[in-house]
Structures are given as structure tokens and as C-alpha cells.
Amino acid sequence: MNQKISKNRRILIIDDNEAIHKDFRAILEGNDRNFNVDEEKNAIFGTALRSLDRSFEIDSAFHGQEGLLKVQQAVRQNQPYAMVFVDVRMPPGWDGIETAQEIWREDPNIQIVICTAYSDYSWREMVSKLGETDQLLILKKPFDNIEVRQIACSLAEKWNILNNLEYLVKERTAEVLEVRDLTVFALAKLAESRDPEIGGHVERIRTYSQILAEYLQKEGPYQKQINEQFLNNIYRASPIHDIGKVGIPDTILLKPGQLNDEEFEIMKRHTLIGEDAIKTIAKYGKSGDFLTMAIEVTRSHHERFDGRGYPDGLIGLDIPLSARIVALADVFDAITSARVYKSASEPIIARSMIENETGKHFDPAIVDAFCDCWDDFLKIAKSADQSISGMMEPIISHDLQR
Q1: How far is CA 381 from CA 333, 374, 394, in A?
Q2: Among 159, 165, 211, 311, which residue has the least CB neighbours within 10 Å?
């Protein structure tokens, strides 16, 4: 993420007594020689205070109207104060309560500390005038240096947390999603590792699926079904389409030849094995649409548009759109990749075979998208480290259904 957390340690002091401003600066600007605390307090708090960030930026105003002008200017320049220390008595102008009211009208997020040595207002009177708020504190004069610094540090930290909350939530969410995506992709690579000859398959499936989905978002009959969330989900879900193959015996998965009918029935179970695994994961989390699509893709990427696929024999638009997209991406990569049971074919042969299966194996609208995105597919297929040779068996063979 490019955004950075804004650390606001800007403080405005509003007091008609210049000596008070000097006292605040001495306390808050971080010069240890200015800490006039007794020996007992220094023993208790001194070490902790010296470890705190003391880089406060102090501004001064000597009456309420001047303070309001400074707050207005800070807001306009997008450099607001984190807090204001306001003296309760500043004759002949506004007192501290009036000043606080005016400042909050200008900057509702600012925190105000009312400083008083007199009993001009009780807490009840202040709350009555200013309302119940967690942005108001009272500081009694004469000041205790430790108390002033603790208030300043606490309020600065509070301002930073509250005003960066949206960023912090987004940052944390992004971190969680990144860990999730890496974990899911690692599982996909783990499944892929059982067949060392198909290296890079999950990356290519993800890229091919993304190309098709992005095109279909702009062109064709599925524009209303494909939003940004769909694109994000298919990017994450497509790599794990074959995760169920971890449950298929090596004697079948790596067989160097066409599967017999009994072996093929076992191979077909990888769609259900994968679906069950993801459903189990879904019980323990709240990944929502992502896992829903992952289940669709895992179970249904071997369905055929004409209803002759597996495991459910779904027909046409009854097959989830995500699975129809991944089905074409998976077949294209299967044709153009060398496997233990076959050689790789040229991409142009794969295109011809896919076009011939329009309306049979594949959704016609997705085949159209594939043809329109041909240059992108060709570039990825050619960049892969594959041995291109020979012809394949027909697309309806058991080998391609793996």
C-alpha cells in the first residue's frame, strides 16, 4: 500500500500568559533539563518518559480568536492539530469554554484540554455547555510536568489511531488476504508438485482465466455478472481447480498412457475431493465469495456445455460461469503442455480444437473471448518452457479430462 500513516504531534497552546507558553514548551519539547519532577516521581516515571517520542510541534495563540484562526488555517492546509490546551480565563475575549465551542465547529476531530486554576466551571457545567465527549479533558494549574506529558502523548496516540483507523483496517485486511492467498497458492503448488512435468500450470491457468474474465467484463453477454470482486475471486480460485488430485493414486495420476474406464472413474473423483477439502476450510473462516467460487471451480471445471462432462452432467448456463472460464483455460494449457502421458501441441492446434468444441465442450461466448484474446494467450503459451511437438488425441479423450 502506498499510503502512509500520518503521525500528528501538533499541539496548539491558547493562553493569555506568555509564561505559560514557555512552561508548555519546556515540558513538551523534550529537553530533559526542563523536567522539574521530584525524586520519587522521576524514579517511577523518568525512564518511561525518556523513551517517549518528544517531537511535538508547538504553536502559540494568546486569545481565543487567534487560536481559532490558527485552527482554521491548519485545517485548510490539511495539517490539523492533534490537540489544543486552552486556558479557561482569557479576559477580555472568549474564555476557554467559548473558545472550545468555536474550535470544535471548525475541527470536530480536535481534542481539547481545558486548563484552569479556578473553579469557574464545574465538570457538570462544562458538560452542559460542551456536551458529553471523549475529546475533552481538564488540567489543573499549577501543572505537573509528568501529567502534561502523559496527556500529550496519550492524546497524540489517540488522534493517530482514530484518524488513521480506515488505513489501519485496510492495511491489516490486506495483510490477512495476502497470507490467505499465499497459503492457497502454496496448496495449489503442492498439488501440482505431484506431477513435476506440469510446472507453471497453476500460474498459467490463473493468467488465462484472468484474461478471459477481464475481457468478458467489457464484452459479451456476461458483463453484468463480472465485477471487480468476480475478477479478484477468479484470480485466487482458479489455481486450486485441481487441488483434489492430491487424493488420486500416483499409478493413475502419472500413468503414461490413456486411462481405462475404471481408472478414469477414480480420476474423476478429484473434483469431489477438492470440493470437500475447500468446504471443510470454509467452515472455519469467513472468506465468503472467494471460497464459494473456489468450490464452483474445483467441482465443475470438467463440466461440458453440452452436458457430457462430470461430476454432475450440468448443461449450458447451469455450469457456474467461473467454472466455464477455467474449463477453457485448463484445456488450452493441457493441450499446449507436455505431460507424462502425451507431448505438447502447438498453440494454433489448441485453438483449432477449442473452436471445434464450441457449444459442445465450451460456452460459445467464452470461445469468442478466447479468440479475441488470442495474442495474449499465444504470448503466454510461447513464453512457457514447453517442448512443442506432435498431435494430441481428440479433445474428448480421457487424457484431456484429467
Answers
A1: 8, 10, 20
A2: 165
Question: Domain extents for the chain?
Answer: 10-163, 167-383
Per-residue pLDDT tens digits for 136-190: 998 888 888 889 999 999 999 898 888 887 777 777 777 766 666 666 676 676 6
Contact 204, 347 (CB under 8 A): no
- In the predicted model, is pLDDT for residue 389 greater than 60? no
Report if pTM > 0.85.
no
CATH number of 10-163: 3.40.50.2300
Buried b / exposed e across 286-322, counting CB within 10 Å, b at 16+?
ebeebbbbbbbbbbbbbbbbeeebbeeebeeeebbbb
Is the peptide bond between 91 and the residue preceding it cis, with omega within 30 degrees of 0? Answer: no
Integer Cα distance of 182 and 178 in angstroms: 6
In sequence order, what are the beta bridge partners of 61? 14
